[in-house]
Design brief:
mainly alpha; elongated
Length: 162
């Protein structure tokens, strides 16, 4: 019997959290990871700027939101052009929805490389930076200091929500 890790790698549908990164060239993944590390190192020396960066991260669009907006715009535009200009434009929303389905299942579709090269990150990449900044800010100290399971759980939930 194959180890669980090897079976997971052979899955037809990749894990949601890693599917985009798996279909992104390693050089781009490394560049994004290096940018996260630079941000954390900078903010370790400038803790007064952490709150501002966290607000920026809250406003950052991840790859999913970017693709959804792009797909909706193209599908709506193609539908309207198909209705009011030429029925052949209806091929555009058909193609866009097929690409969106492909992305939902595999984590890749033709626009993904375009957006990833421009630095659009996954939610997991954004959350990695957010969590590291919150750790620098000390948000998790109350969890470490809490005694007992329920108190630790409450402190962890408060830290996660901060």
């Amino acid at each position: 019997m194959m180890p669980l890790e090897a079976r997971m790698e052979r899955r037809i549908l990749p894990a949601t959290a890693t599917r985009v990164a798996r279909h992104t060239p390693e050089a781009i993944n490394r560049r994004i990871a290096a940018e996260i590390e630079r941000s954390i190192r900078f903010h370790a020396g400038h803790p007064d700027r952490i709150d501002h960066r966290l607000r920026e991260l809250d406003a950052e669009w991840d790859i999913e939101r970017t693709l959804e907006t792009n797909a909706a715009t193209l599908a709506l535009g193609g539908t309207l052009l198909g209705i009011f200009a030429d029925r052949r434009f209806l091929a555009l929303p058909m193609a866009v929805t097929a690409f969106l389905l492909q992305h939902a299942l595999q984590g890749w579709c033709p626009p993904v490389p375009f957006f990833r090269r421009r630095g659009v990150r996954t939610a997991q990449e954004i959350n990695r930076e957010r969590t590291a900044l919150k750790a620098l800010r000390g948000d998790f100290r109350p969890v470490e200091q809490a005694a007992g399971g329920d108190l630790r759980a409450e402190a962890a939930l408060r830290a996660a929500a901060a």
